[in-house]
Design a protein that fits this description.
Blueprint lengths: L5 H18 L1 E3 L3 H10 L18 H8 L7 E3 L4 H10 L2
């Protein structure tokens, strides 16, 4: 499958960033790669099967519980980049 057009990635990123800001979320460090995967998956969450448009129906509960959504695109705004790193390392 071909890589998504960089302009399409930038446009989707801008749209999702506005959503994240309204919700008090922030992007994780792998946001660009995850957003590209969303576009490759026809706008659906890359870690869910079937029709689950990003942001998927599960992200709010996941962020409330885990401080991030399953695919690591959205993080609770209170999580620092250092905490993000620790959480990711602990999950390996």
């Amino acid at each position: 499958m071909a890589e998504p057009d960089p302009a399409a990635v930038a446009a989707k990123k801008e749209k999702l960033a506005a959503y994240a800001a309204r919700q008090g979320y922030r992007f994780g460090k792998r946001a660009d790669a995850i957003i590209a995967a969303v576009l490759e998956n026809d706008g659906n969450c890359p870690c869910r099967h079937g029709h689950n448009p990003c942001p998927c129906a599960f992200h709010r509960d996941e962020i409330a519980r885990d401080k991030h959504c399953h695919c690591l695109l959205f993080w609770d705004g209170s999580v620092t980049p250092e905490e993000e790193e620790e959480i990711e390392e602990a999950s390996l």
